[in-house]
Amino acid sequence: MSTSAKYSGKTYTFNHGVHPEEFKELSSHCEIQRMPFVEEYILPLGQHIGAPSDCLVSKGQKVRRGEKIADPIGFVSVALHSPVDGTISEVGIFPTPNGQVLPGIKIKIDPYSTQRMDEAPIDLEDLDRKGFISTVQNAGIVGLGGAAFPAHVKFAIPEDKTCKYIMLNGCECEPFLTADHRTMLEYPEEIIDGIQILNRYLKADKAYIGIEANKPDAIEALKKIATTSTFPIEVIALQVKYPQGAEKMMITAILGEEVPTGKLPLDLGVLVGNVGTIKAISDYFRKGIPLMERIVTITGTAIKNPANVLVPIGTPMKDVIELCGGITDDAARILLGGPMMGAVQKSLDVPVVKGTSGLLALTSNEVRDLDEYSCIRCGKCVDACPIFLNPSMMGLLAKKGLWDEMLEYNIMDCFECASCSFVCPSGIPLVQSFRVAKGFLREKAVREKASA
Amino acid sequence: MIKTAKLSVSTAPFLKDTDTTPKIMFTVVYTLIPVLLVSFYYFGLSAILVTLTSIFSCMFTEWLFNKSEDRLQSLKDGSGLITGLLLALTLPPGFPLWMVFLGGVVAIGMGKAMWGGLGQNVFNPALVGRAFLQAAFPTAITTWSPPDGGYFSLRGTNAALPFLQGTNVDATSGATPLAKMKFDHVSTDWLDLLLGNTGGSLGETCGLLLILAGAYLLIKKIINWRIPISIILTVSVLSGIFYLFDPSIYPSPIFMILSGGMLLGTIYMATDLVTSPLTPKGIWIFGIGIGILIVLIRNWGGLPEGVMYAILLMNAGTPLINRFAKIRTYGHKK
Ligand code: SF4
Ligand code: SF4
C-alpha cells in the first residue's frame, strides 16, 4: 500500500476527481541515474506536436553530441539534436512509440569518444524577446509533461494577451510516475533559474509552482530556493487527487477560477509549464545543453528494479528496461506514460522520445479486466468528472451511437482524463467510447465546414 | 530476456477502482440479513417461507427473461436477489405463498425485464411487485398477524391454494400501527416501533436495525446520503407542523418516521441507484418530493400507507428530473 509522506501545511484543490492508488513508493526514493550509452540511437523527426523537423544530415556524416541534426519547419516545430558523438548510419523510416513507422535518423555511436560536451552558456544580455523564442525553438525544447508541444509557441504571447502568472506544473498526479518528483528534488536551483530566465521575457507578476502534497520533500526543496529569488515565486501544495495535474484543474486549484470553455489558460493570464520543461530552459541557456536527454520513470510492479533514469533521446526502450533488470514473467501490459492516460506499448524496439515521461510494466493484478454490467446509474462517474459532465448519460448515448446528442451534454469539453471509467463499478468503457465519439464529431465538423 | 508476445493490448485507464456492481449489490444484501433474522424471530416459519418464495420467484423470472448468454451475468449481479428480498420485506407474514410468487414474477417481469433489464427500468422493481399485489389482493395484503405465536406454526393463509380465496378476514388480523393511527387515532409507543414489537410486514417492524443498516450503507457510500436525509427531514418538518396544529388528529413526526414502510422505503427503495436521479440537485428534488407525498397520502389519502406510492410517483418523475437538474459544466456559464 502507498505510504508516501504527506505535507502538513495548507493544501488546495479542484472539485470532484478520484483517488487511485499511488504506487509512487516503487521509485520515488530512487535517485536519478544516467543511462549508459548504447550502440545505436533512433531519432524520429516528428517527436513533437506540429510539423516534423527537417533533416540536416546524411548517411555517413559524423556528428557531435548536442549537434543540431534537424531544423524546425515553420513556427510550430522544433530542432532535433544528436544525443551522442557518432556517425549517421541511416536516414530512413523507423517504428515509433505511437505504433506508426515514420521518418527518422539512426546514429551509430563513436565507441572511442568520451562523449564529453563543453559548457557553452548563452548570453542573455544580447537577446531580445524574439531572439529568446527562436533560441528555445532551436534548443528543441518541448513540453515534457507528455504532450510534447513546442515550448516556444507557448512563450510567444500574442499582442492582445498578457501573461500575469507563470505556473509550473509539478503535480505529477498520474500514479507510478516519479520523474518530475525527482527532478524537483534534485534540481530545484535549475527550476527556479529557469523561471527567472523565462520571466526576463514574459514579465509576469508572479510565479506559482503547484505540487501535490505527497511530495513534501520536493515542496521544501523548492520553497527553500524560491526564497532566494527577487521575483515572487510561491510554492503551492495541492491535494493528492487525480487529475490534479491537468492544466485546468491546477489553475482552478490555485487561482479559484475556471478556464472558460474553448479558451486557453492565457485568457486568464496564465502560462503553464511542466517543471522538467523549465529545467530544460536553464540547461540550455546556462550550459548549452539542448533537449537531447530527458528523465524517464521506469517502474511498475512487473519491473525488477524501478528507477528514474536520465535517458538520451533515441535510446531503444528495451535497453532502458534492461538497465532496470528487465520485466518479470507475470507482466501483463507495458505502458507509455501513466496508467490513467497512457497508451499501451506493443513493442520495445522503439526509442525513447521527447514525450516519453514513463515506461510502466504492470501485472494482471493491477490491470484487471472487469466483466461489463449495465449502467446502474450510481452516479459515481458524475461525482468523479472534474469537468462536471454526465458520463453516465453520455455513455448511454454513445452505446446507441447517438453522437450528436452527446454534444448537448458538452462531450467536447471532456479531456479524456478517464476518471469516469476508473470509478465505474459496472466496468463500462466510458472514456474509451468518448474518444471515439469526439473523433467522429470532430471529423464531422471539419466535413461540414468544408462543404459549407 | 524481454518477452512481449503475450502482452495484451487495450486502452487507458489501466487502473480500476475496487467497487464493482456485484460488490455493491451484495453489500446491500448483507445488510438485509439482520433485518431478515429479526423478522424470522417475530414471525417464525411464515417469514422464512415468504422470503424464500419471493427470492426464488424473482431469480427464476430473471433467468427466464434473459437471453441465454446473459443469464449467468444477470444472476451474478445480485440485483434480482435484492428485489426478491425487498419484496418479501414489504409483505405480511401470513401472505399466501402463491401470491408471493406472482408478486415476484411481476416485480422482475414488469418492473425490470420489460424495460430492458438492469439499469433501464424507471420504477423500483420490488415496489412494482408490491403495488401489483396491493391492487390484486387488497384484502390479503392488509391481513396482518401480530408478532406472536410459535415459530413453527404458519400464520394466516400461507398455504392457501391459488385462486381459492382462503383469507379468513376476521381470524388474526391485528391492525398495524398506521391503521390504528389512521382509523382510530391511536398512536403506538415509539419504543415498540423501534424494536419491532408491532404488527406489520416482515421488514417494517424493527426500526432500529433498519437505521443501523442505513447508517452502514451511508458510511460505505453505497447509498446517497441526500436521499434518506431529504426524505426524513421533509417528513419531519411537514408532519411536525401538522402535529403542532392538532396533535389529536395528526401523528407526531417520530411516529411518522418509525412506522410502516417509511424506514424500509427510505433506506432501501428510494435509494435504488437505478431509479433515483443522478445529480445532487436532482436527488434533493426527488427526496423532498417523496417526503411531501408521504405526508399527503398518509394524512389525506384513503390508505394508511403512502411510502410505496410516494416512491413510485417520484420514480416516474426521475427521467424528467434528470433532464432538467443538469450540472453546470466546468468553464460554462450558468
Ligand atoms: S459510474 Fe458507471 S454504473 Fe455508475 S452511473 Fe456512471 S456509468 Fe453508470
Ligand atoms: S474522461 Fe471526460 S467525461 Fe470522463 S471524467 Fe474525464 S473529463 Fe469527465
Integer-rounded radius of gyration of chain B: 21 Å
Number of strands of chain B: 0
**CATH-defined topology of the domain at 24-31 and 148-287 in chain A:** Rossmann fold
Radius of gyration of chain A: 22 Å
- The CATH class of the domain at 24-31 and 148-287 in chain A turns out to be Alpha Beta
Note the main sheet of chain A.
6 strands, mixed
Note the gap between the termini of chain B: 57 Å
Sequence of secondary-structure elements of chain A: EEEEEEEEHHEHHEHEHEHEEHEEEHHHHH
Roughly what percent helix of chain B? Answer: 55-70%
The greatest inter-chain interface is formed by:
A-B, 69 and 44 residues
Q: Segments of chain A where pLDDT lies below 50 for 5+ residues?
A: none
Instruction: Describe the main β-sheet of chain B briefly.
Output: none
Q: Report the structural category of chain B.
A: mainly alpha
Average pLDDT metric of chain A: 92
Strand content of chain A: 15-25%
Task: Walk me through the structure.
The complex is a heterodimer of chains A (452) and B (334). Chain A is of the alpha/beta class and 452 residues long. Among the domains of chain A are: 24-31 and 148-287, 3-Layer(aba) Sandwich (Rossmann fold); 294-363, Ubiquitin-like (UB roll) (Roll), CATH 3.10.20.600; 380-451, no CATH class. Helices cover 28% and strands 19% of the residues of chain A. Chain A has helices at 129-138, 151-155, 179-186, 188-202, 216-226, 247-255, 275-287, 317-323, 380-384, 391-399, 403-408, 419-423, 430-451, and strands at residues 33-34, 40-44, 54-55, 62-63, 68-71, 80-81, 86-95, 101-109, 165-170, 206-212, 233-238, 270-274, 293-299, 307-312, 331-336, 343-344, 358-363. In chain A, strand 5 (68-71) and strand 6 form a beta hairpin. In chain A, helix 4 (188-202) packs across helix 5. The longest helix of chain A has 22 residues, at 430-451. Chain A is globular, with a radius of gyration of 22 Å. The termini of chain A are far apart. The relative contact order of chain A is 0.15. In chain B, helix 1 (21-65) packs across helix 4 (97-111), helix 3 runs parallel beside helix 5 and helix 5 (125-136) packs across helix 14 (307-324). Chain B has 14 helices and no strands. By secondary structure, chain B is mostly helical. Chain B folds into two domains: 22-174, no CATH class; 214-318, no CATH class. Chain B is 58% helix and 0% strand. Classes of the chains: A alpha/beta (452), B mainly alpha (334). Chains A and B meet through helix 8, strand 15, strand 16, helix 12 and helix 13 of A and helix 1 of B. One iron/sulfur cluster (SF4) binds at residues 384-385, 387, 389, 391, 414-420, 430-431, 434 of chain A.
